[in-house]
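Feature request, filed as a ticket because there's no other form

It would be nice if the structure record came with a short human-readable summary line next to the tokens. Right now we just get the raw output. Example of a typical job, pasted below so the devs can see what we mean:
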Amino acid sequence: MISSRDMIDPADDRRHTPGPDSLPLWNESYWFPIYDPKSGVGVVTRIGILPNQNEANLWLFITRDGEVVHNATDLHCQIPQGDIDDLTLKNVSYQCLEPLRKWRLLYRGEDCGFDLTWQAICPVYQYPFPPGTSADQAPRHLEQSGRVSGTVAIGNRRYNLDCFGHRDHSWGGERDWSKMPTWSYVSCEFSETLSFNTVKISFAPESHFKVGFFWDGCDVMGVSDLDVDLETDAQGRNQTGLSMWLVNEKGKRYEVTSKVLAVCPVTIGNTQVNDAISEFRTGDLTGYGIIEYGYQLPS
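Raw output as currently delivered:
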């Protein structure tokens, strides 16, 4: 669906409560990946909440010049209280200053931290979901591009960031990482008027699920077709780049290449999830974002 407006109500940006028919791994998560090419500093942070498991998880990485310099990831946290006005997990806070539009991200670590403001540059796009379903059975998932400003502290040094950043928010259904044999998630901001994300989940050599979001400066829309050729190291463990193409719902095709700058790895049981801060190119434009590569580890 092509839309010049937000595809959800502001209330849907808030936290949700699983219903009586919700699945055991019913999930709600908020995720922000950020990279500033001028300073070479990146932040990847996610709060995931599994109410039916009475558990939450925190992903938090800070990178500098292609290296992870701080990792405060904790997959076994207590459920946070409150709503998105001040969603706090351990020493990380996401403060929604305006639903659908503006967030403040705070982290106070012992030797690293950040105080960043994320401001939307496009309306919210919601992935399609099966009609007639509730969030107990089928997940809801939104994507949005933004601009980020603020500071990141690494040791005694402070870095001023002024760059683009992405976010997604999903809730409902279940988040069972083990049910996806392998997948690639890609998000990139090229400019105020060009950004996208794609997901390709491969269940078998010829069985793929593909979906995506696109912003062209006027409308948010889906991706009608795409393919991704992921490049990895010799062991197939870490992504190193990709070449891909996509066609948005207006029928315009884009060819994109990318190289990985820093890999932020998370191991969840037998599932490996690598969020890689990456540089992207299409035509004469350069952008930055994430290549997420997920796969199942040998038993």
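Something like this underneath would help us a lot:
The radius of gyration is 18 Å.
The CA atoms of residues 111 and 214 lie 37 Å apart.
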